[in-house]
Write a structure and sequence with these properties.
Shape: globular
Radius of gyration: 17 Å
Strand content: 15-25%
Number of strands: 8
Number of helices: 7
Length: 210
């Protein structure tokens, strides 16, 4: 398809992929969709509408639901779903604040000079953007939180509307206690890094709960 361009980022990881996409994009809005997220009909129009109509909205997210590839295990508690579908419903517009931003699996952003900060070398050094479970060279999640926080600090709203969303695939290999232990450890490290990056208290109530 002549409308499609494939870009190869030199470094592995979500953060580097997003930076490469932002650098290559030429439009007023940029939309991210993970490879394991299946959009509903009308999703693209729904997630872009707030950005087109409201100049104060800088980031637009959406609701998600689980797409199971095999039956849910009996031991799997409801709260673990937050790792796959953090925002399952909104009912009305949600105006998001740190750390409860919409996930990067399906996200639309407004082009703005603050994106230069997202690719700043100091952020590169924080090693955000999950790559693997390799403990010898880990890259922690959180690049989507970093992106949303940049917009909030530049006076924009980060919102989620209760419109068309996405189905987020839950891969069978992730349905193990061992995978969740690694994930929670990674999320804990990520939250500490993000708190330091944003000059927020590391020992906050939210971080302690996590």
């Amino acid at each position: 398809d002549s409308c499609l361009t494939v870009i190869h980022a030199p470094l592995t990881g979500l953060y580097h992929a997003r930076v490469a996409a932002i650098a290559a994009a030429t439009g007023d809005f940029i939309v991210f969709l993970d490879d394991d997220a299946v959009p509903d009909a009308g999703w693209l129009l729904g997630i872009l509408r707030p950005l087109v109509r409201e100049p104060k909205v800088g980031v637009s997210g959406c609701v998600a639901r689980a797409r199971w590839l095999r039956p849910r295990p009996e031991w799997f508690p409801d709260r673990f779903l937050d790792e796959f579908v953090p925002i399952r419903e909104s009912g009305s517009r949600l105006r998001c604040r740190f750390p409860s931003y919409p996930p990067g699996l399906a996200l639309a952003i407004r082009r703005h000079p603050c994106l230069d900060l997202f690719a700043h070398p100091r952020r590169f050094a924080v090693a955000l953007g999950r790559r693997s479970t390799d403990d010898t060279n880990p890259i922690f999640s959180g690049e989507d939180t970093d992106l949303c926080e940049l917009y909030v600090r530049n006076g924009f709203d980060v919102i989620v509307d209760d419109g068309p969303g996405v189905a987020h695939t839950i891969h069978p290999e992730r349905l193990t206690p061992e995978w969740f232990m690694r994930r929670f450890r990674s999320e804990g490290h990520s939250r500490v890094r993000l708190s330091r990056l944003f000059a927020r208290p590391v020992l906050s109530r939210r971080n302690w709960k996590l």
